[in-house]
Design brief:
Elements lengths: L17 H15 L12 H14 L9 H4 L5 E6 L5 H9 L3 E6 L3 H14 L4 E4 L15 E7 L17 H10 E11 L2 H12 L4 E3 L5 H4 L9 H8 L5 E7 L1
Parallel strand pairs: 1-2, 1-4, 2-3, 4-5
Antiparallel strand pairs: 5-7, 6-7
Helix pairs in contact: 2-5, 4-5
């Protein structure tokens, strides 16, 4: 997810017509969204050609309840990644679990282009994409349908006035609890100490999740079946401590 959060706008007045109502709705989305920019550097010609050729077939349907059996006919289990960044983790999981179906959500088109390239190179057929906010997808998922949900190095929105944009909050955790089956795993990683504390406070206070850690090494060391991400490697090179949190749906 992007690290450059948008500036909050002033509270909108009551709309006088449909155009102003639409503007108010868009302003609300800007205040509530989890990410900053959608586009970075211009895509290279090859990346753009891949996006043009493959994104349509890789994308989930744009509306309605999602039929996971139709999206992944051969999958025995399904997982969701919120903000897949450059797609390294999602591609690695898809390769390691060819009998799973994976939905990846990412508003940043440059990240999507990197993942589409990996899908092509590795010939992965068990990933579907949503180029946008994961909160647009979660309500469309059936109850108790996921085996895993990944939230890796989300935007911490460090300013207190932006904390409402953090993905980890009561509303999103309620939705995660609805779509995760009992025994399913919620994995969250961050290199921001305040976000780690925030996450533990919210998850430990939510009755649907149990933290799996039994000793410090459980959250200090990334599990072997948890592929590294480009952002994680950058954080470690810069001397930041990464925290790996695993929770089980009760």
């Amino acid at each position: 997810m992007g690290k450059d959060g948008p500036r909050d706008g002033a509270e909108a007045s009551l709309p006088l017509n449909d155009a102003e109502a639409l503007n108010d709705a868009e302003a609300f989305k800007r205040r509530e969204r989890l990410y900053g920019r959608r586009v970075g550097k211009p895509l290279r010609a090859h990346q753009q050609s891949l996006i043009d050729a493959r994104l349509g077939s890789l994308s989930i349907p744009s509306d309605g309840l999602l039929d996971l059996s139709a999206l992944f006919p051969r999958a025995s289990q399904c997982a969701l990644e919120v903000g897949f960044g450059g797609g390294e983790h999602l591609a690695a999981q898809a390769q390691a679990h060819p009998d799973w179906g994976f939905i990846g959500c990412e508003p940043f088109i440059n990240g999507a282009a990197k993942l589409v390239a990996q899908i092509e190179e590795q010939k992965l057929d068990n990933i579907r994409l949503h180029i946008g906010d994961a909160r647009e997808v979660m309500p469309r998922l059936p109850d108790l349908c996921l085996t895993a949900l990944y939230l890796l190095f989300p935007d911490p929105w460090p300013k207190a006035r932006h904390h409402k944009r953090r993905f980890v909050n009561a509303k999103n955790l309620d939705e995660a609890a609805r779509i995760l089956r009992p025994g399913a795993e919620l994995r969250i990683a961050t290199d921001i100490a305040d976000y780690a504390r925030w996450t533990l406070e919210h998850l430990m206070g939510h009755g649907a999740f149990c933290w799996t850690a039994e000793h410090a090494g459980d959250w200090q060391n990334r599990p072997a079946d948890w592929p590294a991400t480009r952002y994680e490697q950058k954080a470690l090179r810069q001397g930041r401590t990464c925290v790996y949190l695993r929770f089980i749906r009760r």
